């Protein structure tokens, strides 16, 4: 069977919207898209009187080179969130189909499913926050069309071993798409799973420029997947998803100079992560610092609420993750600059 047999038949059959930019390119006098002929005010908005390319060729090529895939295997949109939403809408029939997740994990998988009126089936992570492959497979039903796994996981930071992901990929063939969210993979010591998409047509990989590439405000995310899946999602994607200034910012970040700077920051974050884990673990009132391969640490406290308020009073905002399953005593602390991290430690040590 084709991976598209898992998609909604009405999506496969629909006539997609054809934008003016898709139907024609080139020319000197552009009178086909009802755009303004005048440039907007301000140098920063140069070129913004024209609609951007739906999938800008230069950006697609740069991302394909970065991730080691063909351009036909790549969809770029407004953060990973847009790709998650498109996948749910393309593969889950409202009121009939479902996704499967392993809490505690990134919340947008469930949000997108519920907006689509797709069921959310849970196979929680083990007590040590490792992925229980047997539990995931036992939770599968014929309604499940998408299985999301996050590695390194947000909000805990652990990575999923290759053997576990391979087993899921092999077992889910013909049953569901396996979507591996690698938003934090640049901070991990182990490589990612992009190579799986050539071996398994039902495997997709989510990547983003928000974290390691310092472009959270530009909202550039990518789905890497089988050509047919990418082509299907392009049919239902809004016609002009990427603002021109965001594309320009991404191309600058992906230049040789930008990549060198990003890799320097990644190395600094990994060193600070190791230092902060050791230092925080020694603070009285800290129960545990979870092992992390991301750019954050999840920390268990005797009184997480009091610590959150103490940090906030000092002008330091961390993430309260106590609402997540099995994290009722935890805060998530992003790794900042050395100076920012030192300030966090100063405040934590005041609890003595």
Automatic annotation (TrEMBL):
It comes from Dyella lutea. It catalyses: L-histidinol phosphate + 2-oxoglutarate = 3-(imidazol-4-yl)-2-oxopropyl phosphate + L-glutamate. It comes from the Bacteria. PANTHER family: HISTIDINOL-PHOSPHATE AMINOTRANSFERASE (PTHR42885:SF2), HISTIDINOL-PHOSPHATE AMINOTRANSFERASE-RELATED (PTHR42885). Its EC number is 2.6.1.9. Residues 44-348 form the Aminotransferase class I/classII large domain. Homodimer. GO terms for molecular function: histidinol-phosphate transaminase activity. Belongs to the class-II pyridoxal-phosphate-dependent aminotransferase family. Histidinol-phosphate aminotransferase subfamily. It is an enzyme of class 2 (transferase). InterPro entries: Aminotrans_II_pyridoxalP_BS, Aminotransferase_I/II_large, HisP_aminotrans, PyrdxlP-dep_Trfase, PyrdxlP-dep_Trfase_major, PyrdxlP-dep_Trfase_small. Its cofactor is pyridoxal 5'-phosphate. The modification N6-(pyridoxal phosphate)lysine is found at residue 211. CDD domains: AAT_like. The keyword Cell membrane does not apply. This is Histidinol-phosphate aminotransferase. The lineage of its organism: Bacteria, Pseudomonadati, Pseudomonadota, Gammaproteobacteria, Lysobacterales. The keyword Zinc does not apply. HAMAP family: HisC_aminotrans_2. Pfam families: Aminotran_1_2. Keywords: Amino-acid biosynthesis, Aminotransferase, Histidine biosynthesis, Pyridoxal phosphate, Transferase. Pathway: Amino-acid biosynthesis; L-histidine biosynthesis; L-histidine from 5-phospho-alpha-D-ribose 1-diphosphate: step 7/9.
């Amino acid at each position: 069977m084709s991976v598209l047999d898992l998609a909604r038949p009405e999506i496969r059959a629909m006539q997609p919207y054809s934008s003016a930019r898709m139907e024609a390119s080139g020319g000197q006098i552009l009178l086909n898209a009802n755009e303004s002929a005048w440039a907007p005010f301000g140098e920063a908005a140069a070129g913004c009187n024209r609609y951007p390319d739906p999938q800008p060729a230069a950006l697609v090529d740069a991302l394909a080179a970065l991730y080691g895939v063909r351009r036909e295997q790549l969809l770029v949109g407004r953060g990973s969130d847009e790709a998650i939403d498109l996948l749910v809408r393309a593969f889950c029939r409202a009121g009939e189909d479902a996704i499967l997740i392993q809490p505690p994990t990134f919340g947008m998988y469930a949000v997108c499913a519920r907006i689509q009126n797709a069921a959310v089936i849970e196979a929680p992570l083990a007590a040590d926050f490792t992925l229980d492959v047997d539990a995931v497979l036992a939770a599968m039903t014929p309604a499940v069309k998408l299985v999301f796994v996050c590695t390194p996981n947000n909000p805990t930071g652990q990575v999923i071993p290759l053997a576990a992901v391979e087993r899921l990929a092999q077992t889910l063939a013909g049953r569901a798409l396996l979507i591996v969210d690698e938003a934090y993979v640049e901070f991990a010591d182990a490589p990612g799973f992009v190579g799986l998409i050539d071996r398994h047509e039902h495997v997709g990989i989510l990547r983003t420029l928000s974290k390691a590439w310092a472009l959270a405000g530009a909202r550039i995310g990518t789905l890497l997947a089988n050509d047919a899946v990418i082509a299907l999602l392009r049919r239902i994607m809004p016609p002009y998803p990427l603002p021109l200034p965001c594309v320009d910012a991404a191309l600058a970040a992906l230049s040789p100079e930008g990549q060198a700077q990003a890799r320097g920051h990644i190395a600094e974050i990994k060193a600070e992560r190791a230092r902060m884990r050791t230092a925080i673990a020694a603070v009285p009132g800290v129960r545990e610092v979870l092992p992390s391969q991301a750019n954050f640490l999840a920390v268990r406290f005797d009184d997480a609420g009091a610590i959150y308020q103490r940090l906030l009073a000092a002008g330091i905002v961390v993430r309260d993750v106590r609402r997540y399953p099995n994290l009722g005593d935890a805060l998530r602390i992003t790794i900042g600059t050395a100076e920012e991290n030192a300030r966090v430690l100063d405040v934590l040590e005041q609890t003595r």
